[in-house]
TrEMBL record:
It is found in: Membrane. This is MOR1B protein. It comes from Nyctibius grandis (Great potoo). InterPro entries: CD200R, CD80_C2-set, Ig-like_dom, Ig-like_dom_sf, Ig-like_fold, Ig_V-set. Residues 1-93, 112-175 form the Ig-like domain. GO terms for molecular function: signaling receptor activity. Belongs to the CD200R family. It is a single-pass membrane protein.
Length: 176
């Protein structure tokens, strides 16, 4: 989320027409088109964040700027040329890194929260404990995971929470 993404099309010489057909999971479909005989591009219902990466006659790649969850969906590039017709389909999944918070609750127990990540983060602790993480789903597809550290031994002073996520791992330590 927040980065740019470039989806490539089959590179062919003597392209006569290129069409990107986009079907997001949220909202209606859109399309970008290019006709070589008229050297003309066209767009239908596509947001400004989606456009050709370069000139479509040289490279028909699609660039999505500031990728958001709403960009998830199916992207198909269709190329027509003298060599025939070719297509390439992508299923775009957007990763959202969670916000990591580590704090002490009212009873002096460390609590680790990985908020609004997509997919849900995995929380673990450096020291062994008997915590069961709780998950809360949000309307936008993100998930908050909360884990409370409960030690087997009472002489634990400092503990570390580790959040594992496909968008990157994080860790924090706290003494409660």
């Amino acid at each position: 989320v927040g980065n740019s993404s470039v989806l490539t099309c089959p590179p062919k010489s003597n392209i006569t027409m290129v069409t990107w057909k986009i079907s997001p999971k949220v909202g209606g479909p859109c399309a970008l088109g290019y006709r070589a005989d008229k050297n003309k591009t066209d767009r239908t219902n596509c947001s400004d964040s989606m456009n050709w990466k370069f000139r479509p006659d040289r490279d028909p790649a699609l660039e999505i700027r500031r990728v958001g969850i709403a960009h998830e969906g199916s992207y198909t590039c269709e190329v027509a040329g003298t060599e025939g017709n070719f297509d390439e389909t992508y299923d775009l999944t957007v990763l959202v890194p969670p916000r990591l918070t580590l704090y002490c609750d009212d009873h002096g127990n460390p609590v680790c929260e990985a908020a609004a990540g997509k997919p849900a983060a995995q929380i673990s602790w450096v020291l062994e404990n008997n915590s069961t993480p709780k998950e809360e789903g949000h309307d936008n597809g993100t998930v908050t995971v909360l884990s409370k550290f409960t030690a087997y031994s009472t002489n634990v002073t400092n503990t570390t929470c580790i959040v594992s996520h496909p968008a990157g791992n994080q860790s924090r330590s706290i003494a409660c």
